[in-house]
């Protein structure tokens, strides 16, 4: 975790259309070109009233700063 509450991660792979990530990532990353950075704001319905205990509180709006490194 970073001091402002953000978390930093290493690159990871996923396949669009396979429901490997939350819907906001599917929709947002599909609109990004290789080398482009984007800010994805995911509404609270991503994890809803339950959240993800210990990580994401209930009804949380999530903000991700992403960069598409490559397509395979």
TrEMBL record:
Segments passing through the bilayer: none
GO molecular function, one term: peptidyl-prolyl cis-trans isomerase activity
Residues annotated as signal peptide: none
Location within or outside the cell: Sarcoplasmic reticulum
Cross-referenced InterPro entries: FKBP-type_PPIase (IPR050689), PPIase_dom_sf (IPR046357), PPIase_FKBP_dom (IPR001179)
Top EC category: isomerase
UniProt domain PPIase FKBP-type: residue ranges: 1-72
Pfam families: FKBP_C (PF00254)
Keywords recorded for this protein, A-Z: Isomerase, Rotamase, Sarcoplasmic reticulum
PROSITE patterns according to UniProt: FKBP_PPIASE
Enzymatic reactions: [protein]-peptidylproline (omega=180) = [protein]-peptidylproline (omega=0)
A Gene Ontology term for the protein's cellular component: sarcoplasmic reticulum membrane
Enzyme nomenclature, EC number: 5.2.1.8
Top-rank lineage group of the source organism: Eukaryota
PANTHER family: PEPTIDYL-PROLYL CIS-TRANS ISOMERASE, PEPTIDYL-PROLYL CIS-TRANS ISOMERASE FKBP1A-RELATED
Family in the record: Belongs to the FKBP-type PPIase family. FKBP1 subfamily.
Entry protein name: peptidylprolyl isomerase
């Amino acid at each position: 975790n970073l001091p402002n509450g953000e978390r930093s991660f290493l690159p990871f792979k996923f396949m669009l259309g396979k429901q490997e990530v939350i819907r906001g990532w599917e929709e947002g990353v599909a609109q990004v070109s290789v080398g482009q950075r984007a800010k994805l704001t995911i509404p609270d319905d991503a994890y809803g009233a339950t959240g993800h205990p210990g990580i994401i509180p209930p009804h949380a709006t999530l903000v991700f700063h992403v960069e598409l490194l490559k397509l395979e």
